[in-house]
């Protein structure tokens, strides 16, 4: 809301007409312009964004803090005597809260990643690039490293001044403290990441006591270096040039997608003024705070730009200024194109919204069915390739097999081996088997049958392995595989 004179003079009317013309020209410019204007520092191109407070920044900080804490502490959770989440590369297993997944089960993980991608697309249709602003690890670690820098060096002006200042003992101490804390945080991040592949409780002790092996140490420091460079040095460059999501996310937008948007009709023509001053200008006081607090250095007043990560920092900064001048809030806000036009917001009618939502729902059903049909016993029957059969002196026919039985659970299990097909089949081996957690048993057996009971030279025989422990539904899990029994 702008303060206008109730009875303008002819000169004021002329100025008002010019102002309205500027507003009319500014509206299509702000909506249509997509070429970014990134505010780089003249010295080296580094963006020193201001630390901003506000509702959206509190929400972002809490979500980022939760993300970082979960990332670091989940590897320390134990479940049924094992690390709750562990990608055991040596054993080729993935432990997830009592569920053991093997390489042949990784289609389930593929479904999980596909569902996560379509869920991201689904949210993007409604809220735009909100993932980048509030949940993306790059954003979380960038703001965390920036917070450390603010505590040691000071605000953005102090950081700019320190960059331009000649080297001195004070500058060296600040740089040393900053980079030391960055390095420590990066090292914890590297340990946190590798802790999902190597038991975390032993990993941290080995790393900080310098007793870890060469490859473990190398991988930890590799990811620590990546974190240090990405969050400490590259920062917005990852979002501007490396992240593929920044390049294709705009194709998911429609007229009902909410993104961080500048209301050009209300804000233009912009210009500085004193508080409570009557003016023909729009509500934008051209304080430039929206640019100063932007982590990617863009000016949101230039319209939708792919560099915008929807973190809401400019919204909080602009609302802070609007409060000081007594203007209505949300000159910059999360709004859709239809909202700016005064039209009703009907996101659920969007074909993209319905399509992505239906895709996520269908894939969740498929994943649930796949999980339900997944067996915790793996059986592979291999015939003896040396001979088809053997005939004994008492007119019995014998066939030899090798069974590979894997216990895919995280507990030792006892199994019962049975034969199906011809009732005359007899197993010449122990039918009760104890297999340790995650172990594959290579079990040679011989099957015997009377020659007179075999009608053909080749018959089907079924090998059935049954878990002696009942599952949650009161049933005994079992798996079977057919093979051939040969005779003369």
Fold and architecture overview:
It is a single chain. With 488 residues, the protein is of the alpha+beta class. It has two domains: 1-75 and 108-374, no CATH class; 377-486, Immunoglobulins (Immunoglobulin-like). It contains 16 helices and 16 strands. Helix 5 (137-152) runs antiparallel to helix 7 (169-194). The protein is elongated and about 115 Å long.
Strand and helix map with partners:
Blueprint lengths: L9 H23 L22 H19 L4 E2 L2 E2 L1 E4 L4 E4 L2 E3 L4 H22 L2 H5 L2 H16 L3 H9 L4 H26 L5 H9 L5 H21 L1 H7 L2 H4 L10 E4 L1 H4 L21 H4 L20 H13 L6 E4 L1 H4 L10 H23 L3 E7 L6 E2 L4 E12 L5 E9 L4 E2 L4 E4 L4 E11 L7 E10 L10 E9 L2
Antiparallel strand pairs: 1-2, 3-4, 4-5, 6-7, 8-10, 9-10, 10-14, 11-13, 11-15, 12-14, 15-16
Concise overview:
About 45% of the residues lie in helices and about 20% in strands.
Mean pLDDT, to the nearest integer, reads 85
Q: What fraction of the residues are assigned to beta strands by DSSP?
A: 15-25%
How many strands? 16
The count of domains is 2
Structural category is alpha+beta
Q: Determine the number of helices (DSSP H or I, runs of at least 4 residues).
A: 16
- The dominant shape is elongated
Largest sheet: 5 strands, antiparallel
